[in-house]
Amino acid sequence: MAVRIDAADAPTIDGNLSDPAWARAMPLADLRQKLPNVGAPATERTEVRVLYDENNLYVGIYAYDSVPGDIVLRSMERDGPLFLGDAVSVRLDPGQTRRNGYRFMVGASGGRSDTLFLNNTTGLDEWNRIWEARTSVVEDGWIAEYAIPFRILSYEAGQGDWGFDIRRIIGRKNEEVHWSSFNSNLVFADVSQFGSLSGIAGINQGIGLDVQLYGVSRIKRDWHIPGEDTGISFTGGGNAFYRITPSLTGTLTFNPDFSDAPLDPRQVNTTRFSLFFPETREFFLQDAGAFELAAAALPAGFRNARPIMGARFSRAIWASSTVNRC
Question: What is the pTM assigned to this prediction?
Fold first, then answer.
């Protein structure tokens, strides 16, 4: 259960859980293995505490480690491969849609990654928002401390229970543990099996307006034909996102520039089926799950488990022609 605090008592996000506010939250500690031994207790203790005020969700994670000198510190790159070392992630499904959610991941080294989950099947690392997290390595493990603003999340106000999960990777053991959804048949983006986080009420989503501006200047000179198209040019534009209701967002763009969008991964196609590339332009990622069909028609166990039997029926229907004779 999340514990409400006043904004004046909010913890300082510095990778240290000594703030008095953290003592008010009951720790969650029963994490189970997803890898390598499904459902077995985690080999290292993890304590999770959850607080919130009207503006932010605060999560404190104490990742105990019996050999802290062997904690694997890897990438500090934004949206980098944090899973290659010790890392934790907070996974949220506001309003318990059982379809779409968010992942906020930090490595023991301090690297951060945020991901948008769509329809239990897809995770988009191109989704980026502003949130805080700090880590520190201590004598008996390491600590991660989060502050996630409510205004960066899409959800319907008044729904107190949220989907919630904590994931921890213990690098040197190749061990992955979860608070819930530790079924090894689930894909990483499946939010349908998240646990419930209760107690969240009376929060503020802000005025619902986000503005992104950009400017580009160019200098051009043709050394072969002096004076031809030589000079300095400037262009600019931006995006605006306005949350009309808690679950409905209007988007506006002016003179868009998608040059900073990640390149599509190179793929070799030797099949007869077309390739489909994920959308990476941030303007089109806003509430992208609302424009896709859900993959939740079947329970998650049927959707993601390896089939043990199946059946197929095919039929050919032949056209016939009738000749009328006079």
Answer: 0.75
